[in-house]
Specification:
The chain is of the alpha+beta class. 31% of the residues lie in helices and 33% in strands. 30% of the residues are buried.
């Protein structure tokens, strides 16, 4: 990842404003975390995030010196090897960094063993830090803003409580879809 990032920055191919005026030698990558996708069709009231979310790759913070300026993602290729996927410098980069820093202050995280993951729920416009508890099923989820109504930004909740809100949001989304289809059909 670091070599690919350096080549892109050196050649000007990064096309990420935060990386336009930096030297490839000043860049670093850190804080690897999985990226998981949760599709609308998989959301239900009694679902388990662990079984419903699909892990799609890895994401790393890109640093210019001490400052996080972007993220770089990898994804699995057809040979089941991780390859460079894309760079990003949008608001969820800083939002994820902020969420991780807040999570590090939680007593449960300090006393436990958690793996961070970025959880994306595209159909509901939800992005969250998913703290996967490596010692039990007591996962925590921290929504990253902007978050839909019912989800408090940067507030860690039990995964079951997060799933309950997602199930309500998904139900509303499905109802809106049914109603819009009825209004289109003659």
């Amino acid at each position: 990842m670091h070599r690919m990032l350096g080549r892109m920055v050196a050649s000007g191919a990064a096309q990420v404003p935060a990386l336009e005026a930096v030297s490839p030698t000043s860049l670093g990558v850190s804080t690897p975390h999985r990226v998981a996708i949760l599709g609308l069709d998989a959301i239900g009231g009694q679902m388990s995030l662990r079984s419903a979310a699909q892990k799609k790759g890895w994401r790393f913070f890109v640093h210019n010196g001490d400052k996080v300026v972007a993220s770089v993602n990898s994804s699995l290729d057809h040979k089941k090897k991780y390859r460079f996927a894309h760079l990003n410098d949008g608001p969820f980069v800083m939002g994820t960094e902020h969420a991780i820093r807040r999570a590090e202050q939680l007593e449960a995280v300090k006393d436990g063993h958690f793996e961070p993951a970025l959880l994306l729920v595209p159909a509901l416009h939800v992005v969250a830090l998913w703290l996967i508890n490596m010692d039990s099923e007591a996962d925590l989820v921290m929504p990253i803003p902007p978050a839909p109504e019912g989800l408090s930004r940067y507030r860690a909740v039990a995964s079951a409580d997060f799933v309950a809100v997602l199930a309500d949001l998904a139900s509303q989304k499905r109802q809106e879809h049914r109603e819009s289809r009825r209004s289109v059909v003659p």
